[in-house]
């Protein structure tokens, strides 16, 4: 069941989204060549505690870290590590979710490290643009599938593939709520949008033609492309308003 947020809840979600956005802006300058993903994790946890918030990923169903760091062919849920050092040519998605006063703010950004291949630069740019195309399609009274339809229409021309195994999600008091947000067109997302709905739009786009992914049997979390192709992702938490959508995770 999709939860329609009250005005009080929306204000709390705005605060959570704002702090998550501020954390993502804070960590950006540290995401560079020679840095370990564990170092980024520790900085984020320090920021989170300093601001009286809670890291939602930490211990969520056993996830061991405070943020997700997904490099190159890792689609999502990458686990920060001391031995994972960023190098020139990498791209890394840093996914942050904070709990502020009981409510969640969820956002992510794909950073480019040093000299990134032009083909991959284009993938990153187009993935971010695809996210904003999806957000622009949000209007009360329309169906949720318009989000995936807008993303798919834009992405299809580049012969990329849209990951189907994972999508956006409702968010509020819970990290993951209804609805499940598909980033490709499907009648399964025939859910009427209403003011007060809050969910994430977070397309994961693969450079290869296959949208197939697999989860590590070693850690049970790290999701990679099955063909080894690079994958990019961007994410915002959005509120359905009378006019369209308000992005809650913008600085």
From TrEMBL:
User: What Gene Ontology molecular-function terms does this entry list?
Assistant: initiator methionyl aminopeptidase activity; metal ion binding; metalloaminopeptidase activity
Give cofactor(s), names only. Answer: Co(2+); Zn(2+); Mn(2+); Fe(2+)
GO CC, alphabetical: cytosol
Recorded catalytic reaction(s): these are: Release of N-terminal amino acids, preferentially methionine, from peptides and arylamides
Q: Whose protein is this, by species? A: Desulfuromusa kysingii
As for what it does, the entry says: Removes the N-terminal methionine from nascent proteins. The N-terminal methionine is often cleaved when the second residue in the primary sequence is small and uncharged (Met-Ala-, Cys, Gly, Pro, Ser, Thr, or Val). Requires deformylation of the N(alpha)-formylated initiator methionine before it can be hydrolyzed.
Question: Might you give the EC number(s) for this enzyme?
Answer: 3.4.11.18
Enzyme category, top tier: hydrolase
| Binding residue positions for substrate | 77, 176
Q: Which NCBIfam families match?
A: met_pdase_I
The record describes its quaternary structure and partners as: Monomer.
Q: Where is the Peptidase M24 domain?
A: 11-242
> Binding residues for a divalent metal cation 1, per the UniProt record?
95, 106, 235
> What family does this belong to?
Belongs to the peptidase M24A family. Methionine aminopeptidase type 1 subfamily.
Give the superkingdom in one word: Bacteria
Protein name in UniProt: Methionine aminopeptidase
Residues reported to bind a divalent metal cation 2: 106, 169, 202, 235
The entry's free-text remark on the cofactor is: Binds 2 divalent metal cations per subunit. Has a high-affinity and a low affinity metal-binding site. The true nature of the physiological cofactor is under debate. The enzyme is active with cobalt, zinc, manganese or divalent iron ions. Most likely, methionine aminopeptidases function as mononuclear Fe(2+)-metalloproteases under physiological conditions, and the catalytically relevant metal-binding site has been assigned to the histidine-containing high-affinity site.
Output the Gene3D superfamilies linked to this UniProt entry.
Answer: Creatinase/methionine aminopeptidase superfamily
Which GO terms are recorded in the biological process aspect for this UniProt protein? proteolysis
Tell me the keywords, alphabetical order: Aminopeptidase, Hydrolase, Metal-binding, Protease
